[in-house]
């Protein structure tokens, strides 16, 4: 029975996801949750003698226990005794609530630490996947899975699981106490609240799961439309299609609102249903007392006890229902974490350093995209000597960018290999080889930060080498531009470099590549979006950098961009058509 219970199964799956540190912490949190339940019962139990003292004027004389306490402390009047009991009860309640808050803080801290742990882990797992994964997966789904899913797992699955345990223990202790004190009250509570709880849970469990799954699937769709509206502003305006985009966004938001409203109703309906059942219990209790009990005082005591139990059990039942609904509705987060929860990256498998002193050899290299039959690159071979300035040309679809991605090790070869000084590039060489690489593409990614931060990309500000930064600014022909900036290298460039021209963005990209210490500088259509004059200036800047230690690989659609290249490789239909000098290629173009 318990083995197949979804709560038990969920706990097992959660523990399987956690490492030993979080398992130990989880057990400690559960133990303190049990302590919290005991303290809650003590706070509730402390009110009982106070109620009995107020309702029964003769209880001091009639109860041996209360009489002995009265005499032991030397009270002179029942009023003084009741006053002392009030102060004692208040002290217990204050201490209980302070400790309870500390335990709640412990639970919240554990939950948020879990979020942080899985958020960081998922980010690493995603980043270890190859470039093809990022090309084929919607970016909003990736963001959802490494941010939203850990957040839901920690806050809407693990935390409710702790709350569920705490409230179940609390209700169990209260029920046992009531059974011992008044078994009839227990039967009434069980007969009234039990069926309501079971029927309500069965009604909402599948509906809330469907709502959460629908919200989960709708989230990246909504964000995607927003990004299209924001980042496609110029195209949307020029095509006068904003109303179409707004209509799509409105449709998504309408669905989102409807789902959230229904979820909010389900989450809050449990308290209302339980309130009805509790008041039904009170009415049944009153009728029971009027017809079956001979004493009104006895009815008052029973009603007081019932009210006291209801005061604490009603929110507990409500929390249990909400916790079960939340757990049931967020079980899919375990599925996603399990699916992505591969072994953490084994950084020990990477070689720490590799040399590039002689040549890069491409040997019988082939590649086709996953799920495709056609080869993008088909058995190509050539060599690049250190210090070479190599141009790569070819029509669209000839395999130029694919070749660059293989050099960058974003793709794994389908056949053949790339060797650097005789060492084959593979999964062990990624990090060491990329230390030698600088990559500048047509659309340079810029941070919404300072020029300095964009040149020393990913480096902490306090670790930036100022001398080296100014050296690469000079080499990339950025000095005059920087001198004219109001705050120099500390000037904010704006989101995605919105305040910069195309040529300035490209020069920043070159400076970034040089700052990283690149020995191989790869330019993928880096100047194709620029006008001829700016492209010529960038080209001059690039080749002024040239020395025997810097190897250049340039993909370009204008032959004039390659005039300083000593070797031009032409690709056609995924094969090497020719390897010629610039003069030969230029002469052929003039003839054609």
Descriptive overview:
The protein has 592 residues and is an alpha/beta fold. Helix 7 crosses helix 12 (332-340). Helix content is 64%, strand content 10%. It has 2 domains: 6-340, ABC transporter transmembrane region fold (Up-down Bundle), CATH 1.20.1560; 348-591, Rossmann fold (3-Layer(aba) Sandwich), CATH 3.40.50.300. It contains 20 helices and 10 strands. The strands form 2 sheets. The chain has a 6-stranded mixed β-sheet with strand order 6-7-8-3-9-10, sandwiched between helices. Strands 2-1-4-5 form a 4-stranded antiparallel β-sheet, covered by helices on one side.
Layout: helices, strands, pairs:
Elements: H1 6-17, H2 20-55, H3 59-62, H4 64-72, H5 78-128, H6 131-136, H7 139-181, H8 183-231, H9 233-238, H10 242-292, H11 296-329, H12 332-340, E1 359-367, E2 377-385, E3 389-393, H13 400-407, E4 415-420, E5 423-424, H14 430-434, E6 437-441, H15 451-455, H16 466-475, H17 479-484, H18 502-515, E7 520-524, H19 532-544, E8 551-555, E9 567-572, E10 575-580, H20 582-591
Parallel strand pairs: 3-8, 3-9, 6-7, 7-8
Antiparallel strand pairs: 1-2, 1-4, 4-5, 9-10
Helix pairs in contact: 2-5, 2-7, 2-11, 5-7, 7-8, 7-11, 7-12, 8-10, 8-11, 10-11, 16-18, 18-19
Provide tags for this entry.
single chain; 2 domains; 592 residues; 20 helices; alpha/beta; Rossmann fold; ABC transporter transmembrane region fold; 10 strands; six-stranded mixed beta sheet
